[in-house]
Amino acid sequence: MSNTPNLKNRLVSLDFFRGLVMFLLIAEFAHLFEVLMESGNEQLTAVMDFMFHHAKWEGLHFWDLVQPFFMFIVGVSIPLSYANRKKKGDSETAIRNHAFRRAFLLLLFGWGLYCIGPQKIVFQFDNVLAQLSFTYLISFLLLKQSSSIQIGVGVLCIVISDLLYRFFPVVGFDQAFVAGENFGAWFNIFISGYEYGGHWAAFNALPTAAHTLWGVVAGKWLMDNTAQSEKLKRLVIAGIIALVIGYLTTFFTPVIKRISTTSFVLLSAGWTFLALALCYWLIDVKQIIKKTFVFRVVGVNPLFIYLFASLGGGGLFLKVIRPFSNSLIGGFSPWLADLFSGFVVLFGLWYLCNWLFKKQIFIKI
Fold first, then answer.
1. Biggest alpha carbon–alpha carbon distance for the chain
2. Contact in structure between 232 and 90 (CB atoms under 8 Å)
3. Is residue 363 one of the residues assigned to a domain?
């Protein structure tokens, strides 16, 4: 736990971007999207399905971008955090030990979330924390390398993954892009003893390392002593290049988030570069959005609110509010009662972040 950081010296657009992503995640924990899906309005249901549900297998929904957003944001933060620690006088050894400890704790927390509920210890590693433990460590170890090397290693991670899926020789798992019959399914069974629900792949940590590595590149660009217009141009050009290459690869590789295919990684990276560019332009360059407080208070405590909500914090708030909403509104409309409950839970989770922010409590590892 820390009573820093110095918020005056932070990149506001990055805090906003991170906070927006976390705000959407806690809205999911508040079951708001689930309630809106049950409105009875077909158009609203279709929009909510595209915006806040993952594609069932092939395809790219908005919600498929949330994890790449977060992993990229972590990468952007790495060079900024390193520079701040060096400015405080931390030694290379202390910074390196902290990075290894953080990677271990991310893996521990990511694994531990799957052990809550089952009657036995399981070994599953497909959630964002477990994936980040790998992508963060790789990105930190390559922090001092040139941007060209970081971009190249990201491409290499994608290529290795793609080749393994296409040419894996084990019978029954040699169908590159068929759910449950590919290398990712075999790898899940190899390390966990079973295939994961939804066919999510633990091996995604390798190809999605590109998101965090390329985030490091973006972070270094934003730290350059160049004009804001030049920084913005780099982000936009990188996003466009990734999108063009990504859409070209769709002619021979389907877009599948659940196994992080080449086309998915490139397309999601492209949209992520452009999303950061938009936040940077709106907030740091043009200062069109000046009041970022609502999202920033969530963005500076992302690990805490993610773990709190994952461990049932949202459900706890829901148990408190549901009797009141059902009694006051349920008789008129059960759906409105659930919607009201969802908004109250979302506010409760946000208010908790706000309270920590006001107390200058920032929970980190």
1. 63
2. no
3. no
The span from the CA of 68 to the CA of 270, in Å, is 10
CA 254/CA 320 separation, integer angstroms: 44
If one counts every other C-beta atom within 10 angstroms of the C-beta of residue 336, the result is: 15
Give the chain's end-to-end CA distance (angstroms, integer).
Answer: 7
Categorise residue 31: left if φ over 0, alpha if ψ from -120 to 50, beta otherwise. left
SS (H, E, C) 123-173: CCCCCHHHHHHHHHHHHHHCCCCCHHHHHHHHHHHHHHHHHHHHHCCCCCC
Hey, what amino acid is at 195?
E
CB 158 within 8 A of CB 135: no
Q: Is 149 within 8 Å of 142 (Cβ atoms)?
A: yes
Tokens found for residue 58: 């092939």
Cα–Cα distance between 244 and 246 in angstroms, integer? 5
Length of the chain: 365
Dihedral-angle region of residue 91 (phi above 0 means left; psi in -120 to 50 means alpha; beta otherwise) = beta
pTM for this prediction: 0.90
Q: Which amino acid is at 124?
A: Q
Number of structural domains in the chain: 1
Residue 1 in any domain: the answer is no
Q: Note the helical H segments in 1-146.
A: 12-29, 32-37, 42-52, 66-87, 92-114, 128-141
In a domain, residue 2? The reply is no
pLDDT in tens, 198-233: 999 999 999 999 999 999 999 999 998 899 999 999
- Cβ–Cβ under 8 Å, residues 344 and 321: yes
Q: What is the domain extent for residue 106?
A: 7-358
* Higher pLDDT, residue 242 or 224: 242
**Closest to 336 in 3D by CA, of 344, 131, 75:** 344
* Residue 113, domain member (yes or no): yes
